[in-house]
Specification:
Number of helices of chain B: 1
Oligomer: heterodimer
Strand order of the largest sheet of chain B: 3-4-17-6-13-14-15-10-11
Structural class of chain B: mainly beta
Distance between the termini of chain B: 39 Å
Structural class of chain A: alpha+beta
Strand order of the largest sheet of chain A: 1-3
Largest sheet of chain A: 2 strands, antiparallel
Number of strands of chain A: 12
Radius of gyration of chain A: 24 Å
Distance between the termini of chain A: 61 Å
Shape of chain A: globular
CATH class of chain B: Mainly Beta
Helix content of chain A: 25-40%
Order of helices and strands of chain B: HEEEEEEEEEEEEEEEEE
CATH topology of chain B: Jelly Rolls
Number of domains of chain B: 1
Number of strands of chain B: 17
CATH architecture of chain B: Sandwich
Order of helices and strands of chain A: HHEHEEEEEHHEEHHHHHEEEEHHHH
Largest sheet of chain B: 9 strands, antiparallel
């Protein structure tokens, strides 16, 4: 009996091993699939509600928690250290719920801003880099209205849709007309989550993706934004902002504080550097120091940057549905993924192990691309021409209507849906757009369904 | 007044309210200011400020538990209200006070009748997965005992107010909501007198204050800084707010 039992044991063990093996294979498969859902790697959070863009990294060191909250307090703070002109009182005014634009009930005033471009750094000689609409003890520089013009669009398969474009009318210029060489660029505030991961993408990786001369003749060039790091003097990769004008979150935050809120960070030029126009404009502000009462210090800026780095990317939803799978394959096959790069592994961000070596799916290459004349704003920033825009990340796209109800897509918010945004693509993206337009309706719907899961 | 008489009086009031409510609900103002705070009726509730008693009467609460009042707050971190409720409605009592921020309820205290007991449970939404909380019992400001790591399914703390179900004078307590320094939400009730409070782990302690505190694990947590509104909803036949403050 004993022998028989012993003789059977290997058989049961084999079965057990087999089951275990299958379980391991299944778990590996499940883990691989799970990674696909986790757009921000280990930092990804699960939330599909209005707080989806505002959660702490899923792997956040608990010792950072109070700093994160302090940073959020700065993000919401109505700064007293205001300059004479501004567009808003706090960061959160324009990035409600850390998303794209103001609270839906805030009115349309904060949903857009106008960036001013000019041949020389510093923007318009009078109005600076931005046409602000709030004056502190002085007349507000200007106000503007947006009128949306709709044009019909017809797919080759016959379906009809509409595309809208903005027409901006500036009124009440308090300090005289704009300079004849000044160009206006309508912009919307982008969402602010996942930025730490983008900051952690290695420069070499971004440079490796660039193909400024289109050497591979695929019609996609991809240009690296080049900016000078004010702290080191070195030319580095720009990656933040609609034209990637800022190389770091510190620089982006400093520029936004100054241009949007009229709040000056101590040693602005050390953070932002010259050439972006903000420093040159800040110099003008300094000349008006009596009005520009004071400044915030590097500690406040550090907390703001820490907050932005600490905001996680939400996980995908419904990502295993067959139509979504089909849409994902189409996204790659028609060429969207050439610029909206699905995957990258982050490099090392000093002091932030949470963001380091993360396999992420941001759907951006952080490069500048010619998007054609319809989206061109004629405003140059750094090496970006008036037709070039940085590829925006697509993570969180499906949650924009939930977090930022009513917010439009593309740099000026003209697109009311991802489909409309695709149809505005031109320039380097014209081929992909045309392939999308020629897809049968069901396949177009599948691609849109995929985007909705991001 | 005997219990029977109280029930009859309550029923008469219910009938009277039912007869008058279609007109009253709309005739009376749905928004009132009480103790400097803006209150708006929710659902079928009717608000009335009684200046002689310095009280806000909330009547017309239906059995759904979805009627009550919302109190406007702008970035508040603390709310305290002394409330009295009439539990003679014939349906199991349910009273919930919730703080709202960023478009959702971030923390709630729910007091509900379970048989002949009143059970207090919290709902915290800051965490994405596995939210836990602690239960702390104080007596006159002194910590008596606590239990932590409790899941939402752990059940509530049983508070010593069975008497309230039969004698309305006992149906009075101070309800509070706080956003603590580390961002955790805390709901709290303070009773006029100490009594036995049974924790979810079975331990019974004597105290007059029950605190339910969200346990914050920073990873994935939403960093609430405060709240924008408080709601007090329930199915009590009537509810009176006797004192209230927000900061």
């Amino acid at each position: 009996m004993t022998r028989r039992r012993h003789s059977r044991q290997p058989g049961w063990a084999a079965v057990a091993l087999c089951v275990l093996g299958h379980a391991m294979v299944l778990s590996v498969v499940a883990a691989t699939q799970a990674r696909e859902e986790y757009l921000g790697g280990d930092t990804t959070v699960v939330d599909d509600g209005p707080t989806a863009f505002g959660r702490a990294l899923a792997n956040l060191d608990q010792l950072r928690w109070n700093e994160l909250r302090a940073g959020k307090e700065r993000f919401h703070r109505q700064w007293a250290q205001r300059g004479r002109w501004a567009d808003a009182g706090s960061c959160a005014d324009c990035h409600h719920h850390d998303g794209r634009g103001p609270r839906p009930d805030a009115g349309s005033g904060l949903a857009h801003l106008i960036r001013l471009g000019h041949g020389s750094p510093g923007g318009d000689p009078v109005y600076g880099v931005q046409l602000r609409r709030i004056g502190d003890g002085v007349p507000a520089p200007a106000s503007f209205d947006i009128h949306w013009q709709e044009t019909p669009h017809r797919y080759p398969s016959g379906e009809v849709s509409t595309l809208r474009r903005p027409a901006v009318k500036v009124t009440d210029l308090s300090y005289g007309p704009l300079d004849p060489h000044t160009r206006m660029s309508l912009r919307v505030p982008p969402a602010v989550f996942g930025l730490g991961l983008l900051e952690a993408v290695a420069e070499d990786e971004i440079r490796r993706w660039s193909d400024a001369g289109d050497a591979d003749v695929d019609g996609i060039s991809g240009k690296v934004q080049q900016v000078r790091d004010a702290a080191t003097g070195r030319v580095v990769v720009g990656r933040f902002g609609w034209k990637a004008s800022n190389p770091s979150l510190a620089a982006q935050s400093t520029a936004a504080l100054l241009a949007d809120l009229g709040v000056r960070v101590a040693d602005t030029s050390r953070v932002v550097g010259r050439g972006s126009g903000v420093v040159e404009w800040a110099a003008g502000v300094d000349a008006d120091a009596a009005r520009h009462r004071s400044q915030i210090d590097a500690g406040d800026l550090g907390l703001l940057v820490g907050y932005l780095r600490g905001l996680a990317v939400p996980a995908r939803r419904r990502w295993t549905q067959p139509a979504v799978r089909q849409g994902e394959a189409l996204f790659a096959s028609i060429g969207c993924a050439a610029c909206h790069r699905p995957q990258v592994v982050t490099g090392k961000l000093p002091g932030w192990p949470e963001l380091t070596n993360q396999a992420i799916r941001p759907y951006t290459d952080l490069l500048l691309h010619d998007m054609g004349p319809e989206l061109a704003d004629e405003v140059e920033e750094g090496v970006a021409s008036g037709r070039e825009w940085r590829t925006p990340p697509l993570w969180g796209l499906g949650l924009v209507p939930i977090v930022s109800r009513g917010a439009g897509l593309l740099h000026d918010g003209r697109a009311r849906s991802p489909e409309e945004a695709i149809l505005w693509h031109a320039g380097e993206a014209e081929g992909a757009r045309e392939r999308f337009r020629h897809l049968p309706p069901r396949q177009r719907a599948a691609l849109i369904a995929f985007l909705d899961t991001l | 007044m005997s219990k029977q008489l109280r029930i009859q009086a309550a029923m008469a009031a219910i009938v009277a309210t039912a007869m008058l409510s279609p007109g009253l609900t709309h005739a009376q103002s749905s928004t009132v200011v009480f103790q400097g705070l803006e209150h708006t009726a929710v659902g079928a509730a009717v608000l009335h400020v009684d200046t002689s008693r310095n009280a806000l009467d909330v009547s017309g609460l239906g059995p759904s538990g979805a009627d009550g009042v919302v109190v406007k707050a702008a970035g508040a971190t603390s709310w305290t209200a002394r409330v009295r409720f009439d539990a003679l409605s014939g349906v199991p009592l349910r009273l919930a006070w919730s703080a709202l921020a960023d478009g959702r309820a971030i923390g709630s205290g729910v007091l509900r009748q379970v048989g002949d007991r009143l059970e207090m449970t919290p709902i915290f939404t800051g965490a994405t997965t596995r939210p836990t909380h602690s239960v702390q019992v104080y007596n006159n400001g002194k910590l008596v005992g606590a239990s932590g790591g409790l899941q939402p399914s752990s059940g509530g703390a049983v508070v010593p107010w069975a008497l309230c179900l039969t004698v309305p004078e006992f149906c009075e307590f101070t309800a509070e909501f706080h956003t603590l320094g580390d961002g955790a939400c805390m709901v709290k009730i303070v009773t006029p007198a100490a009594g036995p409070i049974r924790l979810p782990n079975g331990l019974t302690l004597i105290g007059n204050e029950l605190r339910l505190v969200e346990e914050v694990r920073p990873a994935s947590h939403y960093p609430y800084l405060g709240f924008d509104a408080m709601t007090v909803l329930g199915d009590a036949r009537s509810l009176t707010i006797l004192a209230e403050s927000m900061r």
